Amino acid sequence: MALTMTSALDLLGRHHLLREVIQGGDWSLDAPNQDGEPAEFKTLTYDTRQVEQGSLLFCKGNFKPEYLDGCDQAGMAAYVAETDLSERCQAPGIIVSDVRKAMSLLAAAHYGYPQDDLTLVGITGTKGKTTTAYFLQSMLNQLSGGRAALLSSVDNCLDGQHYRESELTTPESLDLFRMMRQAVDAGMRYMVMEVSSQAYKVDRVYGLTFDLGAFLNVSPDHISPIEHPTFEDYLFCKRQLTYNSRKLVLGADCAHADLIRQDAAAAGTPLTTFGMDRTEAGSRPRQDADFLVRLGERHEDGPADSYLIGPASGPMTAINPSMDGDFNALNACAALAMVQALGLKPDQEALKAMEEVRIAGRMEHFASGNRVAYVDYAHNQASVKALLDFVDEQFGNRNPAVTLVSGSAGDKAIDRRQGIVQAAQNRVDRLIITGDDEGTEGADRICRQMLGYVTNPDLDVSIILDRTQAITTAIQEGAGDGTGFQVILVIGKGEERWIKVGHQQIPYEGDDRIVARLLGTRSHDLGATGTPRG
Ligand SMILES: CC(=O)N[C@H]1[C@@H](OP(=O)(O)OP(=O)(O)OC[C@H]2O[C@@H](n3ccc(=O)[nH]c3=O)[C@H](O)[C@@H]2O)O[C@H](CO)[C@@H](O)[C@@H]1O[C@H](C)C(=O)N[C@@H](C)C(=O)N[C@H](CCC(=O)O)C(=O)O
Ligand SMILES: Nc1ncnc2c1ncn2[C@@H]1O[C@H](COP(=O)(O)OP(=O)(O)OP(=O)(O)O)[C@@H](O)[C@H]1O
Q: How far, in Å, are 25, 83, 100 from residue 70 at the CA level?
């Protein structure tokens, strides 16, 4: 469907978003007079640097009027904004009460409502969104002959095969609808996407109904001046997925599950639940979740523990995910519950597809002599706790000396600094606090703040600002006397090849590559599911 000035105004009017159209001194509710057939907008953009002949520009966020200089000359057809910017340009201004909502509605129309041709799955949760999304995509690809697209915080995949690094966890609505169109044109039948709390906060998914939503878990995170003012606001934004999904899969042990159940009842959204079953083998499984995962046989020194996964009513199937950790088995269980909620029957091959999934920078495992290292993306209290639970379960009987290398990002999610220290300080032997994406705050300040949260006097703790040096120290002079078994955990950056300093991304070797180089083991350079990026 071509979007013209007339159809855009009509759509905005129907959604009560249109205030008026301003061109020069003329104010009206109608489209400015045009000769002949109304011209369709050629492109839509929210960046003046992308404006070309026939563009419709959205002025959102911290947009500055001076960005409009030169847009007339570039051929801008019109702009959409919440204020009159006619002093800066000749093109008509569509003045709306909410530019982000307007952008989502107009983008959907411009790209011909691609969501109608996709089975759309949205996944939210504080932890496990990316992993669960990859697990689900792998099963859907297996069941549909490779017709599952993916939008994640690591990579986007629009044709079931090629993965490209993504910028945001959930894209801006304009980019989202464009990518959906590309996916439909590439023959995709499914799209699996992560839905961040921020997506609801700033209307990136406004007007979208998901065929299936998943709410995995929630714990305090993303509280900062540019994200959420409070945990209540963070959770409230996430809860919106329930009201915008036709069905919902919910973690049975999710905090505030009762509230989310109330949401689902209020919205008339049917629920399927999943959870970890920790009852003894052979005893009656837990009864309060529809899908369960439980520990299978333990293999000492084996590649990974195996799990049993399936509907609570049985039968269970053994799986052996290549990504370590009970939390990843739980993510696999969430993905299985989602496939079933979509009305599909996952066969053995589909479950096997999950076993092949590897995600760059998530639970990357390295070993040499008496040292084992993991590079992981844990970067808040809940994920550090989950990672240390894994270390206890997997290596506890070998009495390891555990070294943790962690920093925390600047400018956002400020509560993580305390959360990481709290989760770790009584469970590791050595903590090396180091630089992360410091942004405009400076790594020194963030590291000192983290150090200030340490209350355990027995903890061997130090700040080594340079991340490469911090990892080198951890590997070469880990905790303990160096003779016993050592576990080294390097967390928070995954496979990222840059560190954000100020507003710049400074090239960085990468945690995984540094560990591999120092331990003399092989590093993987994969985008996802064993597929090189490209
Ligand atoms: C708070 C927030 O949502 N910020 C996002 C938002 O910023 P904004 O709209 O204020 O944009 P801005 O960069 O200040 O600039 C204002 C506008 O002027 C435009 N511009 C700029 C310069 C110019 O010359 N001409 C011009 O038109 C820009 O394109 C933009 O549209 O739009 C930008 C892109 O249009 C995003 O990059 C930016 O995300 C920032 C980088 C960010 O850090 N976002 C985080 C908080 C975020 O969204 N995270 C979530 C959750 C992650 C998770 O759970 O792991 C996510 O979904 O990624
Ligand atoms: N279900 C889970 N529960 C707790 N921790 C988890 C879970 N799944 C993954 N993690 C931990 O969180 C880290 C990030 O996992 P993942 O990328 O799948 O989550 P995410 O929700 O996409 O995170 P983010 O929003 O921070 O990008 C992992 O490296 C792991 O340490």
A: 20, 19, 23
